[in-house]
Amino acid sequence: MSWIFLLCGMVLIFVLLRPMSVNFTNYVIWKYSTTTQSETGDIDYRGARIRYLSYGHGEPVLLLHGGLSNKLSWFSQIPWLVTSGRQVILIDTRGHGDSTHGNSELSYQIFAEDVLQVLDRLNIQRTDIIGWSDGGIIALLLGLDAPQRVEKIVAISANFHPSGLIPEASEIQNESSYFSPKKFTDWLRSWWSGAGDAHPILEAEIKELWRTAPLLVHADLRAITAPTLVITAENDIIEMSHSGELAQMLANGRIEIVLGAGHATPITHAEQINQLIAAFLGIKPPM
């Protein structure tokens, strides 16, 4: 009888987590059935090994995940972006996923430098960038410091200054918690970040980064000329006024708000996010 209860429990979880569970199942099926050419590799830079993964051919689009997460967080976006005819590049941020920490203090600047190293390895001179949370911050920095490498930016739930975060942000800015209505165990959080036993150290370092960075000012934002779509959520951990200020100060920015959503919109509200991305980047929308 135990296996019956287990099966029923799994079915219940699957139903409760829809549409996230459906999207993840579709991703797994796609991943293990696709014939799309892929490339996995590592670059060594400033003491760290940075893992990247590239799918398909066509105009490149780079996906940058958030803090205490990993490249798998894009499971609702990867299949349709690849099948739409784009080359999709995924990177595990330094210290996350399959990338090592290295001997440098973590910063958004070094994260951006790591990205440029990967683009150089793949011989990608210019790319669209979709960044979520910390990934959105990295995208903005690339738009500021390496504008020749950036085509368009989609910045999802990203802030340009620590003052843009709500006070409770350091407690809830962990995308893994959105997979379940219950708080994840320490073990599962460690698995999701990829840091394993080092997760508490990584978490402390990332939360300190959230407290102190980024420190972009209006002049910096005006210097980012790439067309930028700022996506925020009604119940995000980024203050709505801060997201509006970001879009307004950018040289070529606009904003979209996902109603009824929180910080994890690419997972919890993937359909709306994918439609917004498709329209902005001129990509065939998901079926």
CATH architecture of the largest domain: 3-Layer(aba) Sandwich
Treating each run of at least 4 consecutive H or I residues as one helix, how many helices?
12
Q: Would you count the extended β strands for me?
A: 8
The rounded distance between the terminal residues' Cα atoms is 40 Å
CATH topology value of the largest domain = Rossmann fold
CATH class of the largest domain: Alpha Beta
Query: Percent range for helical residues?
Result: 40-55%
Amount of beta strand: 15-25%
CATH fourth-tier homologous superfamily of the largest domain: Alpha/Beta hydrolase fold, catalytic domain
Give the domain tally.
2
The helix/strand series, from N terminus to C terminus, equals HHEEEHEHEHEHHHHEHEHH
Can you list the strand order of the major beta sheet?
A: 1-2-4-3-5-6-7-8
Mean pLDDT: 90
Short description:
The chain has 287 residues and is of the alpha/beta class. Helices cover 41% and strands 18% of the residues. Helix 4 (108-121) crosses helix 5.
How are the elements arranged and paired?
Elements: H1 2-16, H2 20-33, E1 38-45, E2 48-55, E3 60-64, H3 78-83, E4 87-91, H4 108-121, E5 127-132, H5 134-145, E6 150-156, H6 169-172, H7 186-193, H8 199-212, H9 218-222, E7 228-233, H10 240-249, E8 253-258, H11 265-268, H12 270-281
Parallel strand pairs: 3-4, 3-5, 5-6, 6-7, 7-8
Antiparallel strand pairs: 1-2, 2-4
Helix pairs in contact: 4-5
